[in-house]
Design goal:
Distance between the termini: 24 Å
Oligomer: single chain
Order of helices and strands: EHEEEE
Largest sheet: 3 strands, antiparallel
CATH topology: OB fold (Dihydrolipoamide Acetyltransferase, E2P)
CATH class: Mainly Beta
Radius of gyration: 12 Å
Helix content: 10-25%
Strand content: over 45%
Structural class: mainly beta
Number of helices: 1
Number of domains: 1
Shape: globular
Strand order of the largest sheet: 1-4-5
């Protein structure tokens, strides 16, 4: 299973764009330089009043389908 780390800082105002549907995908650059795109809905459980902030680990299966995202640091 492939896994990649990334850091994310999304303000509360920008998170609202995802909830309202004006942005469906999140694009990030992982710590190894890999560019990733994944559904914004997969980050819902990490939303706080300040937005979404922290270091995350994303895992993909052998077909490059999202398996899991978890927070690994602040």
């Amino acid at each position: 299973m492939r896994q990649v780390r990334f850091t994310l800082h999304i303000s509360a105002d920008e998170v609202l764009r995802y909830y309202r549907g004006s942005a469906a995908m999140v694009a990030v650059t992982a710590t190894d330089g890999t560019r990733l795109r994944f559904p914004a809905g997969s980050l819902r459980r990490f939303v706080t009043r300040e937005g979404i902030h922290g270091q995350f680990l994303i895992r993909f299966d052998e077909n490059n389908r999202l398996v899991e995202i978890k927070r690994v640091g602040g």
